[in-house]
Amino acid sequence: MAALGGDGLRLLSVSRPERQPESAALGPGLCCWVSVFSCFSLACSYVGSLYVWKSELPRDHPAVIKRRFTSVLVVSSLSPLCVLLWRELTGIQPGTSLLTLMGFRLEGIFPAALLPLLLTMILFLGPLMQLSMDCPCDLTDGLKVVLAPRSWARCLTDMRWLRNQVIAPLTEELVFRACMLPMLAPCTGLGPAVFTCPLFFGVAHFHHIIEQLRFRQSSVGSIFLSAAFQFSYTAVFGAYTAFLFIRTGHLIGPVLCHSFCNYMGFPAVCAALEHPHKWPLLAGYALGVGLFLLLLQPLTDPRLYGSLPLCLLLERTGGASETLLCS
Questions:
Q1: For 278-298, what is each residue's pLDDT tens digit?
Q2: Which structural domain, as residue segments, surrounds residue 182?
Q3: Among residues 22, 61, 205, 275, which one is catalytic?
Q4: Is 207 a catalytic residue?
Q5: 319 Rama sector, left if φ>0, alpha if ψ -120 to 50, beta otherwise
Q6: How many domains does the chain have?
Q7: Per the domain annotation, does 236 fall within a domain?
Q8: Of 22, 56, 88, 172, which residue is the catalytic one?
Q9: Is 104 part of a structural domain of the chain?
Q10: Could you confirm whether 258 is annotated as catalytic?
Q11: Counting C-beta atoms within 10 Å of the first and last residue's C-beta, which end of the chain has fewer, N or C?
């Protein structure tokens, strides 16, 4: 946080002297503190909305999930107002509509929906192989189940499925990526914003400690160890979806990847080491990671998605677009 004060605060690490920055109502240092406070307030509001309902039931109970749907959807729907207020306080003019800046746009939407999801599935090649090996049905039967309207109807009435696959990915990406990144990027630059934004996302998941301690689901040490691991995992995942959001300029890709990762869960590497087909599985894990690293830049090439709102925002505020993320 010390980097957020004094002369160390710059809109970007490289400036263009020939372009004059947009006028701001506040100085650079105060603008950054407004940005950080706005992000912190959003994170607290999102988590706090989960606890406005008094209940003795666990978090997975359908009644609890339904109530939390209501409050979290209200907070998420109001979150763009925080970005609007930030814009008015700082005087930063994005040069585009607020919805476009937050990733709601039609230009390049089809590749933005498909390619990040494909990239994420490649990363999970090993776990997908593991899932198919352990599944009692063959590929044809599995596809029939997936495509059957009855299966989807069952899912849509399952509160846990709706939470994990629809509501949580949509609202979390909206609040922690679409709203926070536009506020952080002019202050820190795109690169640092990719790693700063997930800290709010990771800390927001610490509220699970309250649930676990309340219902004594495990020992205190195990609960805090699990929370530390979850913070690390969610922070890394948050950096990945922030990267996707910046490189594609769309919200749909991070939402679909988030939903897919919620379905897959953390890769069961220990189970793979004890699996009867251990070596093919480990080869699948290694191949997936290798292909992911190889295809990360090509499949997120900004030329596939049109203009990038955050890069345009930084250009208007007097900075040069960062080569790695904007080209």
A1: 999 999 999 999 999 999 999
A2: 28-317
A3: 205
A4: no
A5: beta
A6: 1
A7: yes
A8: 172
A9: yes
A10: no
A11: N
